[in-house]
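Hi everyone, sorry if this is the wrong subforum. Our group has a chain we'd like a structural model of before ordering constructs, and none of us has done structure prediction before. Sequence below.
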Amino acid sequence: MSVSRFGVSLDEDLLKALDNYVSDNGFSNRSQAIRHLIEKNMVEEKWKCDNIVAGAVVLVFNHEKSDILKRSSEIRFDYKDYVLSSQGFYLNDENYMEITAVKGPSRILTEISDKLISLKGIQHGKLVMSKAG
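Answer:
Right subforum, don't worry. Here is the predicted structure as tokens:
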């Protein structure tokens, strides 16, 4: 892959924000951070276009207080054409983390994650998507 160099002019506040972003995220330099931001933007644009993407829905909940495992399984079954795999982990005596790998149109993946995350009892939920190819 060839690399091109170019200059960028930023006002002091944006430069400070970029340097903080580099530091906070452990990038080795500004170029790496800028590449990451551009790639992230490209992926988010693909989501808007409803392109095929891959992702993961992460849920954290207390497995003893509700029937979330059963209900999340029913939702995954309803979307079996888009669910690649699901795996669960006991984080401690009460909390459970479920990760569901998904692939399909971004609109559908968002729909799946919204249904899972909105289940009563979910303490934390997040959808992470990336380009699928």
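For your construct planning: The two ends are 17 Å apart (CA to CA). The mean pLDDT is 88.
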